[in-house]
Design brief:
The structure holds two protein chains of two kinds. By secondary structure, chain A is mainly β. Chain A contains two helices and nine strands, in the order αββββαβββββ. Chain B is 11% helix and 56% strand. Chain B has an eight-stranded antiparallel barrel with strand order 7-8-9-10-11-12-13-14. The longest helix of chain B has 22 residues. Classes of the chains: A mainly beta, B mainly beta.
Chain lengths: 223, 244
């Protein structure tokens, strides 16, 4: 019994040993069958589509700048004025423009004649305004400088409304103006403007419309 | 050291990218017999150069309905929007000239108005953002000039355009709240220097041309004051606006 068991073990050992010698062999190769086992899959090409970006066209309809000039405050003399302006060009004819400026009024003739009289306090002499205007390019054209240079220009009219703060009081003011825009380059413009700010004033007793005319020179850049 | 080098390279790449991005301009092919270049961005400015069919022009920027373009030979001039729209991309696709903003579906609106607030002259500026075609958020900054005081008013509200498809005139209604600051011009000084407000409004708007529109607005304000009397003020205004 014991011998039989040991011979079985030996045979098993030998068999496993034979298996050892065949360890590198591969099994019989599977016979390729002609029939497809599954439905054929459609191969999706892994192509990334090249996105052609067309550059966007920048619009340069805004015009920003500063101006300097003289403001004649009715009854209070003529004084320097400086301000900033910004416009948006809606069409080739029409633009919207905003102005913000300050100046300081001088002495009225009454105060010069009678130095003891004060019509407006020192802080009230400060003259500041803002305006919201609509402008129209009436006469576009070209200006020639000698034979070799031509500059684009536009004569425009503006009208609008805003606030004038004078004599420590905010007043509703209308304004009317005419100006010339001269394009030094295609992005830089020089301006020559004359504008009238009209508002009601009762500083000298009776209420009347006062006209405050300014003449200014400005420089603006198109964005 | 390698880190520094990498940083320099990265910066350089970024800078080159930035420069390239800045220089990227649209290039279009002239497909009509010729493309006229004017000396200025306006209908009266003379034609000084003509670009022939098949030539390429570089579009630099636009101003209103005019485009500044550079021809292959370096000449720069202004081309009408309609003329430039007739060109194509090098691929043959039509030139990507942006269309005019659609009035009934525009997003932004910027305007100014004249009005009367509590029987005083009123100057108003406003910015409007369209949440949908019919519902807008409106921010208005206003100044009312009275004989005894000046009021600076800021309001924020919602406005509904009742029939946004109606182009030339369409009724609107809105509600909102605001704040007013009162500065006295002449004694006696106002009892309160500032108040909160709420308003309800009725109005109308309409298309004028291109990106221009008009707007009329009537508002009834309820002023929340500490005095023993509730104050109701009336305002109307008419204005012009540009939409984007």
């Amino acid at each position: 019994m014991e011998i039989r068991l040991s011979s079985v073990l030996l045979a098993a050992l030998l068999l496993s040993g034979c298996g050892w010698f065949h360890r590198g062999d591969k099994g019989p190769a599977p016979i390729p069958s002609d029939e497809p086992q599954q439905e054929p899959t459609i191969i999706e090409p892994q192509v990334t589509r090249r996105v052609v970006k067309t550059p966007k066209i920048k619009s340069k309809d805004f015009e920003l700048g500063a101006y300097f000039g003289a403001l004649s405050v009715e009854d209070f003399g003529t004084n320097p004025l400086y301000g900033v302006r910004g416009a948006y060009h809606v069409t080739e004819d029409i633009f919207l423009e905003g102005f913000l400026a300050r100046s300081k009024a001088g002495l009225s003739s009454l105060e010069t004649t009678f130095p003891d009289i004060t019509v407006v306090s020192e802080s009230g002499r400060r003259f500041t305004y803002y305006d919201l205007d609509v402008g129209y390019n009436v006469l576009p054209g070209e200006i020639f400088l000698g034979r070799g240079h031509a500059f684009n220009s536009q004569l425009y009219v503006t009208a609008g409304m805003g606030d004038v703060k004078f004599a420590d009081k905010d007043q509703f003011a209308l304004n009317f103006g005419v100006g010339e825009r001269l394009l030094i380059t295609h992005w830089l413009a020089a301006h020559l403007d004359v504008r009238d700010h009209v508002f009601e004033s009762d500083l000298f007793g009776a209420t009347k419309n006062v006209h405050n005319i300014e003449a200014t020179l400005g420089l603006t850049v198109f964005y | 050291m390698p880190r520094l080098l990498a940083l320099i390279l990265l910066l350089q790449a970024f800078l080159i990218g930035a420069v390239e991005a800045k220089q990227a301009h649209l290039e279009l092919v002239v497909t009509r017999p010729y493309l006229e270049m004017h000396t200025g961005p306006g209908r009266g400015f003379p034609v000084f150069y003509v670009v022939g069919r098949g030539e390429i022009v570089t579009v630099l920027y636009s101003r209103t309905d005019w485009y500044r373009v550079r021809a292959a030979r370096g000449e720069e001039g202004w081309v009408r929007r309609d003329d430039l729209a007739a060109t194509t991309l090098e691929s043959g696709d039509p030139a990507p000239i942006p269309p005019y903003p659609d009035f009934s579906a525009h997003r932004w609106e910027l305007g100014a108005a004249y009005g009367v607030y509590n029987r005083e002259n009123l100057v108003s500026g406003y910015l409007d953002f369209g949440l949908t075609d019919s519902l807008d958020v409106e921010l208005a900054l206003q100044q009312a000039f009275g004989t005894i005081d000046t009021r600076d008013i800021a309001t924020l509200g919602l406005r509904n355009t009742i029939v946004p498809e109606w182009k030339w005139i369409s009724p609107t209604a809105g509600i909102g709240f605001g704040y007013q600051s009162i500065t006295d011009n002449a004694p006696p000084a106002p009892l309160e220097a500032h108040n909160q407000l709420a308003y309800a409004s009725l109005g109308a708007r309409g298309f004028i041309t291109r990106r221009f529109m008009w707007r009329f607005d009537w508002r009834a304000y309820y002023v929340f004051n500490q005095l023993n009397k509730s104050e109701v003020l009336e305002e109307w205004k008419f204005g012009l606006a540009v939409f984007f």
